[in-house]
Amino acid sequence: MKKKNVKKYITTLTPLFGLLVLFAAFLILGKMRDINISYGLKSIFNQSVVVAVVATGAIFIYTLGSFDISLGASVAVSALIGGMVYNKTGSLAAMLFVCVGVAVLVGLFNSVLASVFNLPVFVTTIAMLSVLNALVLVLIKINGTGSEIAVPAAAVKALNTTTFKIIVLVIYLLLCIFIFSFTKIGRMQKFQCCNPICAKLSGISEKKMAVIAFAMSGIGVGLGAFLSIVYAPTLTRNTASSVGMNVIIAIVFGGMPVSGGARSKIYAAVIGAFSMTLLSQIMVMFNLNSGIGQMVKAAIFILVVFLATSDQRGKMLPR
Question: In this structure, how many other beta carbons lie within 10 angstroms of the beta carbon of residue 235?
Answer without folding.
Answer: 25
